[in-house]
Amino acid sequence: MAEGSELAFFDLRLVHDHFDRALVQDDDVDLKAYLDAYNELYKFFQLMGSVFSFVSSDLKQKIQILTELTNKDSQNYKSIKTMIEYEKENKLMEKTDHTNGTRTLLRLHRGLDFIKEFLRQLGDLSDSDKTSSCCQDAYDKTLAKHHSWVIKKAAIVAMYTMPTREVLFKKVCGADVQRNVDVLPKMLEITGDVFNRTHNLYELHQLHNLP
């Protein structure tokens, strides 16, 4: 993995554009565009370092699993809807020892819930405000529901070290802080649309509690 100094900075415009491309017809989500957006979001966690290990630890692996599925079978893994229907029809979700896309994407979906809530609250802070409290609030409302006590405890301790909003944005966005702040509202709107579509598809097929 590249060191932070060698890693390109985080770009909210790219997240916006990829998620916008993911919003295909019939309330479906294009899987490749979704993963492209998530790869950019993952960059945010890399740039933040170990403080976000509670959410980023296995994101890269899950992105990679889904990318391999889309590359290997572009027809059945073209969208979230086609993936779910294909894996249900072939009873792939019943195999707990089998890595399937639907279960893997559910972990990314839960992570996205945290990311969009954290970024939403960041947008409401002033430059001098600490980011730890809004991060903890976002975590409590989202990912914490799916984590063990041990992970929750470690996450809360890590959050105490988080900087002010100004320092955080400079760390992940470099010189383009204002450009990213300006696009944040539109990016959050598009991300919310993608999240809701994904959520509805999992609800429709009763898949939110996959083991």
From TrEMBL:
Domain Glycolipid transfer protein: 29-173
Superkingdom in the source lineage: Eukaryota
Listed GO CC annotations: cytosol; membrane
SUPFAM superfamilies with a match to the protein in the record: Glycolipid transfer protein, GLTP (SSF110004)
Molecular function terms from GO: ceramide 1-phosphate binding; ceramide 1-phosphate transfer activity
Gene3D superfamilies: Glycolipid transfer protein
GO biological process annotation, one example: negative regulation of interleukin-1 beta production
Family the entry assigns: Belongs to the GLTP family.
Protein name: Ceramide-1-phosphate transfer protein
Species annotation: Ceratina calcarata
